[in-house]
Amino acid sequence: MTAAPAPVHRLAVRVYYEDTDAAGIVYHANYLRFAERGRTEMLRSLGFGQRRLRQEEGVGFAVRRCRADYLAPARLDDALTVETRVAAIGAATLNLEQQIRRDDVTVAALDVLVACLGRDGRPRRLPPALRAAMSCRLNLPSSSQK
């Protein structure tokens, strides 16, 4: 039996003048900003806003690793969709696959590993409720770890 692919969270973004270079093409670092918004909104859709995680759980996330493939240019006024999918859950990490798309064209693909950190900046296990919500996105038992 093959596991079903994890659900995808989608966030619509528009390319503004401030996102582009002199040629009207999205500057490469801005794709990282779009991806960050996608990850943040995916967490929010699960009931875990960044402020709540910081205040109630004492945790936040930091990017540990990011691989980005820029496949096609996005341009001024393009309507893009940031697709975020949970690929794996570790004890203190989340591996997320993200695609930034314009219609049917993938303009950037990212593989992002984020680490859960406590207020002291040291790695900390994912809060149990967040782990359970993420596991549901992966269709795994909530105790599953990679």
The percentage of residues in β strands lies in: 35-45%
Shape summary: elongated
Low-confidence stretches: 141-146
Radius of gyration: 16 Å
Major beta-sheet overview? 5 strands, antiparallel
Distance between the termini: 19 Å
Nearest-integer average pLDDT? 91
CATH architecture: Roll
Order of helices and strands: EHHEEEEH
Helix coverage percent: 25-40%
Task: Write a structural description.
Helix content is 25%, strand content 36%. The chain has 146 residues and is of the alpha+beta class. The protein has one domain: Thiol Ester Dehydrase, Chain A, CATH 3.10.129. Strand 3 and strand 4 form a beta hairpin. The longest helix has 18 residues. The C terminus is likely disordered.
Secondary structure elements and pairings:
Layout: E1 9-14, H1 28-45, H2 50-57, E2 59-70, E3 79-89, E4 93-102, E5 105-118, H3 128-138
Antiparallel strand pairs: 1-3, 2-5, 3-4, 4-5
